[in-house]
Amino acid sequence: MSVVEEQMQQPAAPAGPMVRTLVGVAMLSGLLVVLTFHFTKPYIDENQRRAIEAALFQVVPGAVTRRDFLVTEKGVVPATEKKQPGDTLFYAGYDDKGKLLGIAANARAQGYANLIHLLYGYDPVCQCIRGIKVLKLAETPGLGDKIITDPAFVANFEALDVTLAEDGKTLANEIVTVKHGSKQNQWEIDAISGATISSKAVGKALNESAKALLPMLVPNIEAIETRSEEQVTGDRLKVKG
Question: Which of 80, 137, 133 is nearest to 104 (CA)?
């Protein structure tokens, strides 16, 4: 009998134990992933909360406390209610007396390497964006990351016009990023030479977010302008703690 014939006549190893082992390993791996997620989620959420709060105090100058809200189909409601698909989260910044100073909201758009995530501050008095804070980006060091470090670019957001049109349904003028040195209007963003894609991504992110948020937010601004003394005190204690 040839070697090949002997090998063919040898009984195959039962597949059952091997399958059970693989299933067991997969179940254990899945369980570890779930446990890790549940264990780390509170820490991730807390770190995110602190990052948002620190960014808010930068893009809403003078703010010392915050409250979170949702823009829904029914209007503006506290963020303690369950968020539904289509709802937009935003943050209201107040001074130490409970006066509304501005609104902060998230925006994002595709940059050169990846999505650029940022937080921007809206001032309802001037109807303008008062500042931005980049939360996450993966742009080319020394080029795309100039949207954070370039003073001239940052100056675009000292009073970027986002006034609503007369019908209140959209912006009077869409935010656009223009060639470096050609800015003429307050709703234009002067791009950074050598980082045009990243500059345009910031403009696109702000334009899309403002167009979606402000028509719903502005008519309901009175609902978040002032707070009771109990709310102010409670927020102070929360921030200090």
Answer: 133
Concatenating the DSSP letter of every residue in 101-123 gives EEEEEEEEEE-SSSEEEEEEEEE
Look at residues 84, 54, 52, 47 and name the one whose alpha carbon lies nearest to residue 68.
52
Residue 26 belongs to some domain of the structure: no
- Cα(129)–Cα(160) distance, integer angstroms: 5
The verdict on residue 2 lying in a domain is no
Q: Residue 48: which domain range?
A: 43-240
Q: How many domains does the chain have?
A: 1
Task: Decide if 143 is inside a domain.
Answer: yes
90 contacts 104 by C-beta, under 8 angstroms:
yes
Q: Please tell me the total number of residues recorded for the chain in this structure.
A: 241
The answer to whether 123 and 160 are in contact (CB under 8 A) is: no
Would you say 79 and 106 are in contact if contact means Cβ atoms under 8 Å apart? no
Q: What is the pLDDT of residue 149?
A: 86
pTM equals: 0.73
- The pLDDT, as a whole number, for residue 39 is 58
**Which residue(s) pair with 9 in the sheet?**
none
Q: Judge whether 5 lies within some domain.
A: no
Q: Could you read off the pLDDT of 138-154 as tens digits, one per residue?
A: 666 655 678 888 999 99
pLDDT in tens, 150-169: 999 999 999 999 999 999 99
pLDDT (0 to 100) of residue 93: 94
